[in-house]
Hints:
The chain has 209 residues and is mostly helical. Helix content is 62%, strand content 3%. The chain has a single domain (4-15, 50-119, 129-199), classed as Four Helix Bundle (Hemerythrin (Met), subunit A). Helix 1 packs parallel to helix 4. The mean pLDDT is 88.
Amino acid sequence: MLASLGIAVFLAVCLAFFWGVNLYNLRRHSTERRGEEYRAEVDRPGGVAVMLAAFGTGVFFLESGLYIILAFMDHFWILGDSVFQLRFSFDSQVQLSGIVITGFGYALFIWSVLARGKFATSWEMPQNQELVTWGPYRYVRHPSYLAYFILFTGFFLIVLNLLAAIPLVAIPGYVGLVNREEELLTRRFGVEYLKYRRKTGRFLPRRKT
């Protein structure tokens, strides 16, 4: 197993960038779009999809923070000695792959946040909302959700604890949310979105023919 403190430093740096970029974009969004009138195209989603997405994502950030705290307090044995901890001969290599995957996930998420800027999709959008088709959106329609899928997987490979697999339940939740989100975007942008959808994949780049 890799040193828990080193992993904790890596996760702390990633989370600092994650929240820093999100807060910057939120502040920018509220400043640049102040006074604009927002309207809803479809009803807000609810049900199992929302609950799964919210629960899994919340657990992911909770467990990430808990890992960092336990490692810095030298109490990582609470997790490391639990019955849920996985151990095998090549676990360090798996953890290294998890670090690479997690780093890519955070980079993709931050890229998507910076690319969409003030034009983030929401259930209520202003009249002058633009369809974001640049940055990672050139390749996939939902790069932020894809980034979450990568982060949940990478975190499990880093921690190698069955409790770290709980965030994976968010994946089917986000897949369910995408259906409503694409309905929203189709109503909002019409033919423009249909053309964009034909050129891109939901979560993986569409193969060019």
